[in-house]
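Bug #77: duplicate submission created two jobs. Keeping one. Sequence:
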Amino acid sequence: EVQKHSVHTLVFRSLKRTHDMFVADNAKPIPLDEESHKVKMAVKLRTEYGSVLHMPTLKENLREKGGPNTGDPYGHKQYSGNQGQELEYMITGTHPYPPGPGVALTADTKVQRMPSESAAQSLAVSLPASQSRLDANRTAAGVGDIYRHAGMSERSQPPGMSVAMVEAGGNKNSALMAKKAPTMPKPQWHPPWKLYRVISGHLGWVRCIAVEPGNQWFVTGSADRTIKIWDLASGKLKLSLTGHISTVRGVIVSARSPYLFSCGEDKQVKCWDLEYNKVIRHYHGHLSAVYGLDLHPTIDVLVTCSRDSTARIWDVRTKASVHTLSGHTNAVATVKCQAAEPQIITGSHDTTIRLWDLVAGKTRVTLTNHKKSVRAVVLHPRHYTFASGSPDNIKQWKFPDGNFIQNLSGHNAIINTLAVNSDGVLVSGADNGTMHLWDWRTGYNFQRVHAAVQPGSLDSESGIFACVFDQSESRLLTAEADKTIKVYKEDDTATEETHPVSWKPEIIKRKRF
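Kept job's structure:
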């Protein structure tokens, strides 16, 4: 028979059970055994810090109570409890600190906590002077040495950063300040560029431009279906070539032979012999408009890219199509060649950049970081790097694997063209007629240009389709939608004082995407 209890009794018994359960001390930590704790800490010191224990110790007798330390240039007083004793000084990185300056780190005196920054600094300041270092094998650095080793003057230590640097037997061990957020390095100063010549003569948009290797003349291709050759020094027209039946989208002059190559929206790729000013070869194969072309610098190979989503590699002499580079899913807008691997780089309206293996005719790497069409790619003439331009960003990359370097943000327009010179001036030209000039290394935008359109043109005809530096890199030529070619040069009168860099060392936000 179940015995019935009052509610009061049941509650009381429940409380008692709860009380007994939680008042018991079986979950409390056991009292610390001094001997076993000392053994544990000794083992830990030997295993984790054994390799550096010998480094920062120095034994030295101190003067009588209250007197300043003879070796201390700062005149800090010693603690009374340490009078006349032989002490060990230690600067340590992460294990327990003594309770104050001048106290040996033993099992009895250690403080089981990380010190405050002021305590760490006072510990460093109380170290003996560097003179006593000469008499001892085991040394501790003076504060001036600490700062000097860290690459700063004694008085220029930034606030809130404690530095401890110890040196022994030529080995250096540093426990340095908390890492600062990365900041943009100061950009190299570049003189501003100014417009000094406007060349007119084409009857349609000027779509492409190239300078010949001898730097005597340059060539342009236009929507008026003509190719024109101009004298670089005077800007005068030397020759017009006709033969394309639609817009000429790409021109390039060979450094290996007296040939000019052109391509256009008529699907044609032509090779012109400049001794006779006639077409001597056609390269047939593209199924749609050909948007760009480039010559390999060391072998007789021509690469073209097209709206048919492919790039083709041609043997210049035999006109044979060596490879068809397929993989892009939309029009290929730009192609570049180089002697090093990867030898071919393409940018496409499918938002990707592909690095190709020329021998195998296959993709090595596909870069998918851009979110919009990639219409321009440029290779740095000296560094093993390249840049790509898209309406979302200009991005810099490392060869050979296409590792991302940084974004150049701020040119919010459809970027049609990029050019870079050996001084590290990167130029981006856009569909709205704006041109931005950047410092290649830091990504600093040091100049923005928007040249006026040719008189008689609509403001909406402001647009840059192509730009290129001449061989001396002292002139910049742009091909524009107002049917002109504009020539820029560096402003010789500008100095760093008259045109200072309006740069702030702001924190870099290097996003991958």
